[in-house]
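Hi team,

As requested, here is the filled-out complex form for the adenosine-5'-triphosphate run. I kept the field names the same as last time so the parser does not choke. Let me know if anything looks off before we queue the next batch.

— J.
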Amino acid sequence: MLKQTDRPVPPSGLTDGPAVLALDGITKTFPGVKALSDVSLALYPGKVTALVGENGAGKSTVVKILTGIYQPDGGAILMDGQRAAFPAPQAAARSGVTAIHQETVLFDELSVAENIFLGHAPRGAFGLIDRKAMVAQARGILDGIGAQIDPDHKLKDLGIANKHLVAIARALSIDARVVIMDEPTAALSHKEIEELYELVESLKAQGKAILFISHKFDEIFRIADNYTVFRDGQLIGDGSIGDVTEADLVKMMVGRDVSQIFPKRTSRPGAPVLTVTGYAHPTEFEDIGFTLRTGEILGFYGLVGAGRSEFMQSLFGITRPSAGSVEIDGVAVHIASPADAVENGIVYVPEDRGRQGAILDLPIFQNVTLPSLGRISGRGFMRLAEEFKLAREYTERLDLRAASLDTHVGNLSGGNQQKVVIAKWLATQPKVIILDEPTKGVDIGSKAAVHAFMAELAAQGLAVVMVSSEIPEVLGMSDRVIVMREGRIVAELAGPEMTPETLVRHAAGI
Ligand SMILES: Nc1ncnc2c1ncn2[C@@H]1O[C@H](COP(=O)(O)OP(=O)(O)OP(=O)(O)O)[C@@H](O)[C@H]1O
Ligand SMILES: [Mg+2]
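And here is what came back:
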């Protein structure tokens, strides 16, 4: 165990009765990385425990140990005070432990109901899957979390927020005693987040023990009863949430004070670099037009489903618009594919970075340099050295934490994978970068690094489009804000008009 003096605040001595599930002195090592050293954690019935820590601190590793995906190298798992082992995910599920993982594996070709019940579908006569019962139960669970999703639809037809709701429904389809949520609100909109909080309340009322992982302090303070802080795979502190402030938690996480102040920017927008006129799509958006200048950060705010990402994907050539034109530096360009966009100096960092962003079984440096290889001139060893230099420059600026640049991206923590994708596109030195939720899943210290880097690149003339659902980020970083609702631009705000109230009012249409 940690020495008492190593803890910034003394543990408060939890008095919530016996733990349902606990970890005692758990250690887990990966090649070159000690992901967890001697950590302990206790989950109590009817209580929410928030697990907080920087990207790479070991949070998801704990989740995977508690759900039988990874085996610990040392230490014990205790259920109701008795030693337990989860040699496989099924064993954890049978013991009543279920999780909504940070990256959930779902199957695009299966229906929503099949995804929810894969591996434990209700069965009727002759042991055959009872499809009717399965669809009815799926509908019941989806209704329970306020998700308006048809259980018969194929998963691939859903957007990412709805896919995430299916993942939540899947976790809830197991009648569990312990529910683990690894950044469950990262992919959800405001309304769905509220529904998730209600769900957490109802799970608490049913006496379930909840482990809740999040980088958002407002929600931690809203729903957690207890907290546990990890830093670099070690337990730093735990206790009752009522005994700490946000600043205390941040200090425990990061080991220093971090201010949430956005970088000071003197915005000096230059010449128009991107002009979009009359962009439309048969179902997703209509009549989108704006001008973006060099050195400018243009925020796009809206509720999930407002069509922001759909428009950006179309601008980047992933989907075809039905009408509209684009000018770069005053010259009309035709963008029919992402390659056309990159050629014209426009890059897009998608929201769903796991899937659209990185090649998981290549090392970090190759992921970062891949789209910039044309710019690297050397040969052989010199070339490799240049690649490393480029990758190092961008990943350091984004506060990426990894054992080395040779580490495969698939072995990085969720937040660090996201930084690789941002680095990769920034390294192409584009004229225009579109960042879709740039700090989603990024810890508070790294968030400041990402913001500072964005501000610096804008000061050097990069034009930035930032899609964000976080109001402080939109207001703190943008020179101007475009608000979208139901596929249309409903407001363009600048200067004193940029307030939380106006954003929400326009986004919700009130
Ligand atoms: N399968 C693996 N192979 C090698 N290293 C791994 C593997 N899984 C995790 N790691 C490493 O273990 C450490 C902890 O990662 P983990 O995913 O638990 O972090 P996290 O706290 O969940 O971070 P985030 O907030 O970014 O999601 C990181 O250094 C990560 O690179
Ligand atoms: Mg994680």
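Two things worth flagging: Residues 59-60, 102, 182, 413-414 surround magnesium ion (ligand 2) (CB under 6 Å). Residues 17-96+176-255 form a domain with the Rossmann fold fold (CATH 3.40.50.300).

Thanks,
J.
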